[in-house]
Write a structure and sequence with these properties.
The structure is a single chain. This protein is an alpha+beta fold. The chain contains eight helices and 13 strands. A five-stranded mixed sheet has the order 6-13-12-8-9. It has a four-stranded antiparallel sheet with strand order 5-7-11-10. A hairpin with a 6-residue loop joins strand 10 and strand 11. The protein starts with a helix and ends in a 14-residue tail after the last strand.
Length: 342
């Protein structure tokens, strides 16, 4: 059973037109955070996941999942994943209150899942984002007890991801390394106990913000969503070292960042521990950016941003993204069913 994870991710990131998360319209200064902000950031993601599974289990019955090809005990295991997410919310909320830090609250969400198959496919995307978020944030956590707890949650989220991917007929472990999106700080920077510099965590916040449609939190996180990066729909699966990728309307949008036709822009692909830049070109219509071939060696759930630099992939240089692609090794994409464009 295969379903276009890339198409699902694209639909998810374009489904919400009005999000309460602030979107940047130009270059910004990188924010700084502490452990309390990191925990509230994690709680924001866990609330989103909890609500996603709560809605899915309310909307689709065990019989409907079986009819969609997810045979028992899939429904039972899906309920267990929901219970895990509930526990994560409770744990993080308690940890924040114990530290006399105000926790965030559940917001309002919209999830573009319309049947059991699209629900499970979106689950794979969300769980993958969760793994990348925890992995990216881990190095910036100062308190050892918090670090241990985050690692414990991360390992469970990784098992969720593998199980869901296998249920969809995808490789449960497509890369030797998971992909961190997040807090980039060196060991030396740990001397700065109170404040840590964030470089890429806005990427994860951009992904989460696509599902948040309303609500009010007593906590203001110092992150801003990047402009949306839209992948032009394709009726073929993405393959490393073979497929082209078109970013719809991306050149038009990039001009808000003082970009013109002579400015070199790079599509930077995050896969495992690799960050691989590929220079884009402007298409004939002068609206889109395109690359003619994905880099070799990427696989699974891959993230891509547009950057003004081919070496420094930080908030000051990223102008759009991330978008999510499901990438197969060259020559190993499924022959059917082929992805369908809406």
């Amino acid at each position: 059973m295969h379903f276009s994870l890339t198409l699902t991710a694209s639909l998810a990131l374009s489904a919400v037109q009005a999000s309460p998360i602030v979107k940047r319209t130009g270059p910004v200064t990188t924010p700084k955070v502490n452990d309390g902000i990191i925990l509230n950031y994690a709680l924001t993601l866990e609330y989103l996941e909890r609500k996603f599974y709560q809605d899915g289990l309310a909307n689709y019955s065990q019989a409907e999942f079986v009819a969609a090809g997810f045979e028992d005990p899939f429904y039972t295991n899906l309920n267990e994943i929901y219970e895990d997410e509930k526990t994560h919310v409770s744990f993080l909320d308690t940890a924040l209150r114990t530290a006399n830090i105000t926790p965030t609250v559940e917001l309002e969400y919209t999830f573009p899942a319309y049947d059991p198959l699209s629900f499970v496919t979106l689950s794979s995307v969300l769980e993958g984002v969760g793994v990348s978020a925890y992995l990216g944030a881990a190095a910036s956590i100062m308190e050892k007890d918090y670090l241990t707890a985050a690692a414990s949650i991360l390992s469970v989220e990784a098992r969720h991801t593998s199980y869901i991917r296998a249920s969809l007929g995808e490789s449960p472990f497509p890369d030797p390394f998971d992909t961190p999106l997040g807090f980039v700080c060196s060991i030396a920077s740990r001397a700065k106990v109170q404040l840590l510099t964030v470089h890429l965590q806005n990427q994860v916040f951009s992904l989460a913000g696509a599902f948040i449609t309303g609500g009010s939190s007593p906590v203001t996180l110092p992150f801003m969503a990047f402009p949306r990066l839209v992948l032009q729909c394709t009726q073929y699966y993405y393959e490393a070292d073979r497929s082209s990728v078109t970013f719809s309307g991306a050149f038009t949008a990039a001009q808000k960042f003082s970009v013109d036709k002579d400015t070199p822009i790079y599509a930077v692909f995050f896969s495992g521990l690799d960050k691989l830049p590929v220079q884009v070109r402007i298409t004939a219509g002068n609206k889109d950016y395109k690359i003619d071939r994905l880099p070799a060696g990427i696989a699974g759930q891959v993230y891509v941003v547009l950057s003004k630099s081919s070496t420094a992939f930080n908030d000051e240089n990223i102008i759009a993204g991330p978008a999510i692609l499901e990438v197969y090794p060259k020559g190993q994409a499924p022959s059917e069913p082929l992805p369908k464009c809406p």
